[in-house]
Amino acid sequence: MKTKESDTKTYLGMPLYRPKVGFFEFSSCEGCQLQIVNNESTLLDFLSLVEVVSFREAMTEKSDDYEIAFIEGSITRDDEVKRLKRIRKNAKILVALGSCACFGGVNQLKNRFKNLNWVKKEVYGRHPVDTEPVRAVEDVVKVDLKIYGCPVKKEEVEKSVLHIALGKSIEIPKYPVCMECKANENICLFDLGELCLGPVTRAGCNSWCPNSRAGCWGCRGPADDANVEYMKKIMKEKGFSEEAILERLECFGGFADFLKRKK
Amino acid sequence: MKKTINVNVKHLTRVEGHGNIHIKIRNGKLQEAQWEVIETPRFFEAMLVGRNWDNAPLITGRICGICSIGHTLASIRAVENAFKIVPDEQTRKLRLLLKHMETLQSHSLHLCFLALPDFMNAGSVFPLIKSHKDVVMHAAKIKGLANDVCDCIGGRRLHPTRTVVGGFTKLPTKEELSAFSERLKALIKDLMTVAGLFSGFKTPDFVRETEFVSLKGKDGYPFIGGDVVSSDGVLMKERDYKKVTNEYIVPQSTAKWCRLSRKSFAVGALARVNNNFEFLHPAAKDIARRFDLIPVNHNPFMNNVAQLVECVHVVMDSIRLIDELLDSKFTDPRQEVKPVKGVGVGAVEVPRGILYHCYEFDDKGKIVKSDCVIPTGQNHANIQHDLEALAEEYAVRGKEDGEIELLASMLVRAYDPCISCSVH
Ligand code: SF4
Ligand code: SF4
Ligand code: SF4
Hints:
The complex is a heterodimer. Chain A has helices spanning 31-37, 40-49, 78-90, 99-103, 116-124, 154-166, 177-183, 208-211, 228-237, 242-251, 256-262, and strands spanning 10-11, 14-15, 20-25, 51-55, 68-72, 93-97, 145-147. Chain A is of the alpha/beta class. In chain A, strands 4-3-5-6-7 form a 5-stranded parallel sheet, sandwiched between helices. Chain B is of the alpha+beta class. The structure holds iron/sulfur cluster (3 copies).
């Protein structure tokens, strides 16, 4: 994608620098990438912010000349480790895009089983198949920025890119989903007898699920200072089973440290 | 004629997931043609074991970002069938409307963003944004509207939040629905423009007879549940899906392959149109005829046209569904769920073909065993055999490496494969 001078975006009257970006997917549903191409109304704006040089799902051309690499998915096989290390070498800034990349996402649920051979057999029978325990991107290479969510919020991706282009620091919410939910004036799900991880999960999704009257499953991982033990206590008092709470906490991998600490 | 032709496509682009094409031709004779699937498996079936029933739709929806609504609905149907829950009419209509909009979203993404560049000598849709702005704008409008409806009914365009076992957590308002009805009516013009553009393209000339498998229409064109039918005369109950899919493992693929009456079969838009032509909306039938898509059509490249035909069908049918919903009085969107020990199967026609989810539950509603059979998985063997036949035929015609590479890539793209989904 070449641009003419006249297409260059400006910010406060200064021509905006358009970083070259590549999108790379590992073990994932590719939903986080789709969040970017799937928002027609703002797709063209996004494309004017960056120069996409590698995006296998959308284009045939590929290039190793990029500054920002967006990594989607978790790491589950040796060839993925090699590919990821190569991308790390090429990129100035490496972004973990979405919960699979940030903490293993739903994929890490397979790590619950100590016996990886059982996992393989359950799906492939006696046929040999290559797989390793699921790892987050930062367990393999250095990650410069994490964008949480399953899926990510497009606005957050755009804001991050803009801030990188402007050399500004990137701030993600430290507070929990409950804050957004209250601002959105939702009926609290606890009052409807439903479980919700809003009190301990990092905000930034604009309380996506509670807005639909569905409880939060913690896809964005823990908020700063999340008090998971306290929340568990309150929830048990409200009559939710320990198991239901644990299933939610372990679903996307973000709370792994809290679950480990307890054991 | 050139003596040797070698085609090696590593990580085919503009498809979902990772697949490779290898073709080797010597002295005009095919030595090798291989469709290789190298995607990493994520082991969804194992992940679910031991977890509560409410995890199933939420987790299996993450099998695929493109058809997450289809996975969620198939999963919900499997759980509801196991628990003997029958969704009411309101829920059935809203689910079908949601399903239609996913079909429109996915088909238009494939047609206008992934397949189109091949017909216009471009590597991606990005340069077309400048050179063919009007077409891209029509396509973006179609996809955009489909996504907006999914946001409204499902709560989110991918990985929906409102769809649950028993119904919906929240309903759209009638104002929202009637606004969508107006926008859908206006969308027909955009669809016709896209159809006009595609009618100018030449569909590659290639035919290989195969078996087409789809759900069987009863009161309409089939999307959610029902019997399974094949163009070779097989008729099967939804719960007996394993007798249709017959999965097996091959070394060249981390996705399992399937077969039924022959060495391979095809699912997807072309299979649905071939098996259920009579149930299409008249406007969709018109488009099919305009493109000479008359059942049973055995040219796999015609899947693109079949998707176009379905785009018209789902838009027309959505307008009808919204009318009916507007005329009805909304009732409580969610039924109570009581787990029952047993097995449930859910079959749903997602954009790329029939998708099956099957779960076995214990008496507390914990998942004991699960199985998901993905449309692209069912198509892999058919893609392989098409690839062999195509390479052989075009080698005899004396085509060059580049042309064969492009045709082979277009063939695989015509199936609109969802590779990571097929491996899952
Ligand atoms: S984080 Fe969620 S949406 Fe993103 S790739 Fe992973 S499973 Fe898909
Ligand atoms: S619904 Fe969830 S996120 Fe909203 S206030 Fe209640 S606990 Fe917090
Ligand atoms: S509400 Fe919770 S589960 Fe839903 S998107 Fe936000 S963080 Fe994720």
